[in-house]
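[job 4417] fold queue: 2 targets
>>> target A
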Amino acid sequence: MSEKKSIFNLTFFITSLLCLVPIAVGFILWDKLPESIPQQYGYNDEATWSLPKLWGIITLPIFMFIINLVMHLIITFSKKEYNQKVVNVTYWIIPILACPVGIFMLLKPIGIKIETFQFVAIILGILFMIIGNYLPKTEPNHIIGVRAPWTMNNPEVWRKVHRVSGFVLVLLGLFILITCFTPIGKVAFIAATVFAVIFMLVYSIIMAVKYNKTEK
């Protein structure tokens, strides 16, 4: 008899609650918030579009909650077997982003003194460091990592690639955190991220070619 699966567990309830916390913050700040709340900021930190106050408070948190729900449904009822460490990281990525971002989007209109880019860079820098710490512990999977055919089909190549890739992501996160408050922050963020992605991809190809030569 197959085990009955359900998404209604403690992890789902906590992650969902974190996604919805900004709604409570929004109602606490209701009297201080403007009648129109920006939902997106451009390169120069100027609002590009807004929503009426009520919708501005609830839209992003509900959207993130739905993403969290869908992610739990996909992983829980998938026929594929996922490494538990990978699943744990995946479950917490959305709330780690959703809660602080949702609160920031409410504090920004009432005068918080931090640029949108700087805030996003801090969140992503921390996220890269968390993922980088977990990557070396993962096995081939369809959720996270350098998911190329030459890594997915070879556990040894996967292990070597993600041991280095994890280190690269930790360094990338540190670099972003250090440079995000400098004049070159935006350029450094883009350049470093592109370099890290290309490096991990090229390194995976080199490892795969090297492993194939060794087998022959």
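>>> target B
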Amino acid sequence: MLLGILFALTAGALVGMQNVFNTKVNEQTGNWTTTMLVLGLGFAASFAIGLAIEGGGMFTSLRGMQTWFWFSGLIGVGVVTCMVQGVKLLGPTYAVAIVMTSELGFALLFDALGWLGLQKVPFTLHQLIGVLVIVGGIFVFKLGGGRESEESSVRKREALN
């Protein structure tokens, strides 16, 4: 369990760092170049590391995979694009807080309904309260942060164009 927690904490740190980097790349290039760079480099690194560690055997497990799983990479395009725009418009902390809440809420929904090939997990009041507490925390965070300047608001709108 401790190893799982360590991996999850590391993933959180890496995602937070990647969001900032992606937004900075996007300021220099654009949405699609950023997405291509992020996912292309991720593919190249995963492919090289996979071959080095597992060799050609890394492809044998693909045979029994359900067809619709092959398209999961397309979801990554939406993730990178939406995240970069969210960070650009809201700032990293607020955008990531909303993404994490959305992630948790949908994970809870997928578990409770047994969607996407998951085993059904009973929905409890404790889970609902946990998600609502996180949503409440985001409101407190945003309301307690003060108002953004008109100049900052104009820059964010211009960034979308």
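[job 4417] complete. Note on B: The radius of gyration is 19 Å.
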